[in-house]
Structure formats: structure tokens, C-alpha cells
Write the C-alpha cells for this entry.
Amino acid sequence: MKKYILFDHDGVLVDTEFWYYKAGERALADIGFTLDRDQYLRDMTQGMATWAQPVTAGVDEQTISRQREVRNVYYQEYLRTEDIEIDGVLETLDVLANEFRMGIITTSKPDDFALIHKNRSILDYMDFYLARDDYEQSKPHPEPYLKGLQRFGAAAAEAVVVEDSARGLNSAVAAGIDCIVVANEFTASHDFSKAIARIATIRELPCTIKSLAT
């Protein structure tokens, strides 16, 4: 029986995946480098994404380090100015809170995470969250979700992960946890064949989790 839900964050609870990509694209355009979106999505499944292409093309580490900081500035600009709400998130969390304990496992950096949640109530429903500085190996490594299980004191069979990317799905699967994938247009090309279920919107989540017990 499922008792615990571990949520991915970006693309599942807030609509930020695209804006993270746009911030990197913009930072690389500043130095005359064109980021290929399809390759970005392929690299993303391995936990690389923005910087894999310029590294392969021979852009030096000093330039990449500088543009990484530029990307971070652009991303926070988007977080402040763009609509990143996902319809139905709060209503769904309100329903789930009656039956499940919940936490967030995110690759977001703490500063970005704090900015996103400055005026939002998503965290009111969560027992805890783990951001990028809270573990050593990032997704698709299983460590982030294994640490989530440890925080709950839960067995893998008692938990379900909610993800929107192959990177996150593979992390959950490697940790031995069932994973439900919620559709995200930005990551639609990813391979989700290992998911236990796929849903079109987060509003379908309560019924989908209940169906896992039948």
C-alpha cells in the first residue's frame, strides 16, 4: 500500500523546465553559441543538458563558468517575471494530503527553490524537500530518491514518485520506487517506458495512485 509520495519539482509542481532551458540558451547566445534543443533534451536524460554541447564544441571552462553565472541570473529573472503556475497543483495536493505524506526531491539550487516558493503555498503540504545541495549524486543516480525514502523511514514499496523527465524516472526506478509520469510538453520526447503509469495532468494523480493498490 502506498503511503508516501515523492514529487519531482520542476515541470511537476511548477512550470519551470522550459525557462531553465531558455536561460541557458540565452546565456550561450551571448557568446555566439547556438544551443540545439533536441540535443539538449537528449543530454537532459543523462543529467547534463545546458553545458554538454559547448564542452563538446571546445568552449573553454573559464567561459562556461562565466556563462553559467549569467544563466543563473537569466533564470531567476524568468522566475520573477513568467507565469510558472501549473493548473490543479494545489487542489490535487489538498486531496492527497488526506491520505499521504509528501516530500519534494528536486535538482533545483536552493536559491532558485527559495525564489520559486517565496509567495506560494506548495511547501505547506510537504514534510520536507531535498534540493541540489542535499545530496552528492544528482538524477538519474538513485541517491536523491533513496535519501527521500530515508527521510520518511519508508520502504520503496510504500512510496511512489511523480516525475516528468526520463532523468527523474530513471532515478526513481534505480531506487526501486514505482514512478508515475505526468505529461510535460517540454519533455514529451523522453522515453517513459519504465513508468508504472502516465497521466495527462496532475489532477489525475489521486485516482492513479489508488489504482496501484487494486
In short: The chain has a mean pLDDT of 95.
